[in-house]
Design goal:
By secondary structure, this protein is of the alpha+beta class. About 45% of the residues lie in helices and about 20% in strands. It contains 13 helices and 13 strands. Strands 6, 7, 8, 9, 10, 11, 12 and 13 form an 8-stranded mixed beta sheet that branches. A 5-stranded mixed beta sheet has the order 2-1-5-3-4. Strand 12 and strand 13 form a beta hairpin. It is elongated and about 110 Å long. It starts with a helix and ends in a 15-residue tail after the last helix. The C terminus is likely disordered. It binds FE2/S2 (inorganic) cluster. FE2/S2 (inorganic) cluster (FES) binds next to loops.
Length: about 425
């Protein structure tokens, strides 16, 4: 029992470490094998003693016990021990009753979650309240202020809440949440007044989440370049083809576009049907993000051209596509519900990029890049065709540049500028 207890403690501590994923099978082998091996050792040792010890040695060194001692041992084993054991179990129940009484006397508060309210005694942590009332709540480290997965957003009055302890402040700072006073660790927050909270992470996040994602995605505003890529004519393509072939072709197209984005240093973010949203600038400065997006567009064109060459015999017409690129401040964060959460960007920047992509059909071009991205990326002011377009939802017309062939973009980028996939990390 002591060994199992120790192993549970070690597991909770080690599973958050980066090496745990590959080391866990070895830890498991040690945890399982050590007790039986130890028992085997003791067993063999005892057998050796029995085999080696002569009757004379035993007579000299092994002393028997008297009948009084025997009856005392029997009493301990069959009377005192069972009574003590049952008494201890009763004590546990009694202690629980006393605790409940004391908690009630201390006063009750209401903890409000998005979908329910619970009444709990003062002094309980928010995580303890969740566990007591079966509110789904992530807590990878078991409430030891190590993982930050239990974090909540306090949406009620925060003035009466206790300030974060040193440990809580440290963990919040480590995940980049210290700037927002509404974010607290549920396992450390012990409110003495009513409180309303929203758990930030889905309840089913595991140790993998903690190991792989150290930065919080609760929402941040930053400069992002959004690029929409959309396959043209997939409906026509679907005619006279098996569903399997359509899915295969769309996947090949999205694969070609995604690889182009990754090669340029961006991140394929979302797929909707035969289209894709890619983000640039999650960890680089705006100029690099713009250059990466331009380069990615050129790569997409090159990859799709190669794909068309590969499938020339299969396709009646080469696969066409449209690209829209725009950059600006956007909100990034995890959006969704429970285990259907995705990291993405939202805001006008993203909407405009989607509209520009749509506009490639009416303007009869393959790519439309906003003037903002062209200027920030440092391409010549007279490069590409410049026009003003009206964007739905915007009062003023917007200046954009268009091209029929996105591969020209790579030749417009100044090779002396910062390398495209450079790790120009900004804090
Ligand atoms: S449960 Fe891990 S920090 Fe709260």
């Amino acid at each position: 029992m002591a060994w199992i207890h120790g192993c549970i403690g070690l597991y909770f501590w080690l599973r958050l470490k980066p090496f745990f994923k590959w080391a866990s099978p070895y830890f498991l082998a040690v945890a399982v094998l050590l007790p039986p091996l130890a028992m085997l050792g003791a067993h063999h040792g005892a057998r050796d003693v029995i085999r080696i010890a002569s009757p004379q040695w035993r007579a000299e060194h092994v002393r028997g016990i008297s009948s009084e001692q025997r009856s005392l041992i029997d009493k301990i084993a069959f009377v005192y021990f069972p009574i003590g054991y049952i008494g201890l179990i009763g004590l546990v129940f009694a202690a629980r009753g006393v605790r409940t009484l004391r908690e009630r006397r201390g006063g009750m508060i209401t903890v409000t979650y998005p979908d329910r309210r619970v009444r709990v005694p003062k002094g309980l942590s928010v995580l303890e309240a969740s566990l007591r009332f079966n509110v789904p709540h992530a807590s990878v480290c078991g409430g030891r202020a190590r993982c930050s997965t239990c974090r909540v957003r306090v949406v009620s009055d925060r003035r009466a809440l206790p300030r974060p302890s040193g440990r809580e402040a440290f963990v919040l700072a480590r995940v980049g949440a210290s700037a927002d006073p509404a974010i607290r660790l549920a396992c450390q927050l012990r409110p003495h007044t009513d409180v309303a909270v929203i758990p930030i992470l889905p309840p089913n996040v595991g140790a993998d989440f903690v190991r792989n994602r150290h930065s919080i995605n609760i929402g941040e505003e930053r400069y992002i370049v959004s690029m929409f890529v959309d396959m043209r004519g997939s409906t026509t393509l679907a005619e006279a083809r098996l569903p399997f072939d359509i899915v295969f072709l769309i996947n090949r197209f999205l694969g070609a576009a995604s690889q182009a984005v990754i090669d340029a240093g961006g991140q394929p973010n979302q797929y909707v049907g035969d289209g894709m949203l890619a983000l640039f600038g999650l960890s680089v400065d705006p100029a690099t993000a713009c250059r990466q997006a331009m380069s990615a567009a050129a790569n997409v064109a090159a990859n799709v051209e190669y794909m068309n060459h590969q499938f020339a015999a299969e396709l009646r017409e080469p696969i066409q596509f449209g690209i829209g690129i725009h950059g600006g401040e956007a909100i990034i964060g995890d959006i969704g519900f429970r285990d259907h959460t995705v990291f993405t960007a939202i805001g006008d920047t993203v909407n405009v990029a989607a509209r520009l992509q749509d506009m490639t059909k009416t303007l009869n071009c393959t790519i439309i890049v906003s003037e903002e991205v062209c200027n920030t990326s440092g391409i010549a002011p007279d490069a590409l065709t410049r026009i003003n377009v009206s964007i739905r939802g915007r009062d003023a017309p917007m200046t954009v540049r268009t091209a029929a062939d996105p591969t020209v973009l790579s030749s417009l980028l100044d090779p002396r500028a910062a390398p495209l996939a450079a790790e120009s990390q900004i804090s």
